[in-house]
Structure formats: structure tokens, C-alpha cells
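As agreed, record copied across for absentees:
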Amino acid sequence: MEPSPGLTSTVKRKIQAAEMLVLRLIRGVTRRDRLWNEDTKKELNVERILQHVEETQLKWSGHVKRIPNGSTAHHWLQWKPTTSRPRGRPRKRWLDNIREAVERRGTTGGGAFRTVHGHTKMALAYLDRGSGGVFTECLYIV
């Protein structure tokens, strides 16, 4: 499998399958026991891997938003390729995962996307855990 910066649905399914395999091993059951996955998850009471990945990506996007404008990292973050892309559906990118996470959590105001000067910008909303899960700051990325 080719490494991809975005988590595709195929990769997510494989992660979930591997996670359930490990959780069943920890619980000491097999698929032949025909127990519900939800029962295993509730009994072990562990954080879901994909949920942890999503939260980590949102935290990292907070670090990315604080990159100074003149830095090399900022330059590469804003870089757009000049060559034409291959045919077919565009590959999933890191920002696509961030966009989905923000939309799943909901945003305040006018939604996750706004058009400013003819460009669609993505709003990244960050939760403040101290204020009961309220969105406290917002960043717009071109």
C-alpha cells in the first residue's frame, strides 16, 4: 500500500479491523464466539484509535496555524504544484481530514467554509476543553 498523508476509507476500515482484533485478544475471545464488537468496546472502555488520530490531527493543525509567515515550513504548506494532476478522483489530503473533523464536530457561525475575495477558505475551529467544549478560536486556510 502506498503511503498517503490522508486517511482514506479503506485505510480507516483496516485500522478498525486491526483494532478489533487486538481488543478481542485482550478480552480473550475470538470471532467464533460470535460476540458483538460494541460489547467488547464497552467492556474494555478504551479510546478508539481513529478518534485519537483525529484529535491529534486537530491539535497539529493548531501548531500549523502558528507557523511564522517567512519560515520554510509555511512556504511548503502554502505551496501549490504547477503540473497537472493525474486523471481520476483527487487523492485525499491532510487538510481534507481536518475539514471532515471540523464538520463532524460542528462549527459556530456560518459553517466551516467561507468565500473571501473569490477564494474558498476553510475554517478550523478549536475546542477549548476548559470551557465545556466550546469553540474558542478559528483559523482560515486558503
